[in-house]
Write a structure and sequence with these properties.
heterodimer; A: Alpha-Beta Plaits; four-stranded antiparallel β-sheet; two-stranded antiparallel ribbon; 3 helices; about 25% helix; flat; B: about 425 residues; mainly alpha; 4 domains; about 0% strand; globular; Dimeric_a/b-barrel (chain A); YciI family protein (chain A); YCII (chain A)
Amino acid sequence: MRYTLLLHYPEMDAASLGEEAMAEGQRAFSSYATALHQAKVLISAEVLQPSSNTTTLTKAGGTLRVQDGPFADTKEQLGGTFVIDVADLDAAIEWAGKAPSVEWGAVEIRPGATYTVDGAWTPNA
Amino acid sequence: MDAERLTHAEARAAAEHAARASYGHLVALLAASTGDLSLAEDALSDAFEQALLSWPSGGVPANPEGWLLTVARNRQRDTWKSASRRTSLPLEEADGNGGTAMSALDELDVDAIGDKRLELLFTCAHPAIDPAIRTPLMLQAVLGFDAARIASAFAVPAAAMAQRLVRAKKRIKAARIPFAVPGRDAMPGRLPAVLEAVYGCYALAFLDAPEGQGGDMAAEALYLAVTLAALLDSEPEAWGLAALIALSQARAPARRGPFVPLEEQDTALWDSRLMEEGASLLRRASAGGATGRFQLEAAIQAVHCERARTHATDWAALRTLYAALVAVAPSLGARVALAAVIGRAESPAAGLAELDALAVRDDPAGAAAVEHFQPFLATRAELLARAGRRREAAEAYNAAAGATPQPAVRTYLLQRAAELGP
C-alpha cells in the first residue's frame, strides 16, 4: 500500500536558522532517505523550495488566475513529500515518526488511491 | 438433533446462540484479510439468514461456527467477483488479491485458532480512529450490537450513529488500519482505548438488560476483559478492569426484580464465586504496581463486597478510594460518588456542600450538566432525606426519577418521593 507523507512545518531560511542547524537538518533528511531506501519502501521523495517561490493557479468564473504565493497562507507550509510503499498504516506511522521534521512540524500520512506506471493508472493495493 | 422435528424457533435459537458466542470472532476472521469490516458483517449476516432458512429442515450442523464461516466466506467471494467485473480489472488480478485471502480462510480450523476478537478490538481503538466512535465501533463489530441500540446507549439519533459507524469502517479499509495486537512499544498508547471500550460493553449490557441483570453480554464483557488481561499479562489496568467487571457482576442477582440500593442489598444473594474471582483478579492487578482508574474502581467494588463478610460498609475506605479516583480520573460520576461517600463518612450536610460545589464548578455548562445527571439528582435527594429536609428531598427524588431511563430505578425513586411527600 502506498502512502504519501506530507511534511508541514514553519519555513525557515539559512539566515534565520543558521548554517550549522541547516546542515544538521540536511544530514538528518539524507540519512532518513537512506533508511527508507535500504528498507526498500521508498518510492520517491521531494524536498520543496520555500512557499515564497510558489505560484498558485485558480479558475474562478471561467477566468484563469495566476497568483503569487501558496494556496493556503498559513504559518506552516508543505515542505516536502515522501512516497512510501509499506504493508499497512501502522508501518506508515512508524516511518512517519522517524521523519526529522516531526521534531518541528506535522507529518500527514495520506493513503494513495491510484498512481501511474509507465503512464498508465494503477490502483493502490 | 432430530432434523424432522427442528422447528423454526429452535433453529433461530441455535443460530442466535452461535451469533452471540462467535460474532466478533467470525467478523475478525472475515475482515482481517481484506480490512473490509462492512463486507465481513454483511456476509456474516447473510450467513445467519441462511442458517435460519436451512437449519430447520437440515438440522443444526455439528460445527455451527464453521458452517457460518464457510457460508459467509462464499458471500464475500461472490461480492469480490462481481466487484472485479464492475471495475473490469483483469480477473487474475482480482483472484490474486481475493483468492489468496480466500485460500487462507479455506485452510482455517475455527476451533484451532486463538480468539481473534482481541485483534479486532485493537483495530477499532486504533489512534487513527476518532476516539468518540471507538467504543460504538467495538460494540458493533466485536459484540454484534446494532446501531440503534448503540445510539440509544450513547443518546444520539440512530441514523447519525449508523453514519458514523459506516464512516469509521470505510476509514479502516481505505487507510489500511491493520488487524493486529500492537507491540510492547505501542501498547501503552493503545491500551486505554481498548479498556474503555470493553468497559463500555459492560455498561451497555447493563443498561440494556431488562431486569438489571446484564446477562450474556455482561458475561461476554467479563470474558473479553479476562482474556485481554491474560494475553497482555503484565498490564495492571487490564487486570483492574477484569476485577471491576467481575465484582460488579457478582452483585447482579441482587439487582433482579425491584431496585434495591447497594447498601440495602441482601449479601446472601451476591455471587461468592464471582467475588472470589474478582478479588483474585484485583490482587493480580495490584501486583503490577501503578494504580490506575480501573484498579481504583475495582477496589471500591471490593470494599462494597466486603460487607458480605463484615456486615458493615467501610465508608472511610471508600472515601480514600474515591478521592484517589477523582485525582487520577476526574469525572462527574466520580465526583458525585465522592460527595455521596462524604455524606456518609462525615455528615449529610458535608456531602451536600460537595454536591453544591459541583453544580457551580464548571459554570453554565457544568450546572446544566448536573441538572440532567441522574446520579447527581439521586445522591442529592438521598442526602437531603438524611439531613431531614423532607420536602426538598421529595422534590429531588421526583427530579431524579425524571432523569432515569431504567424503569425499576424510576419506580424506586418515585416510591421514595411518595414516602417523604406532603
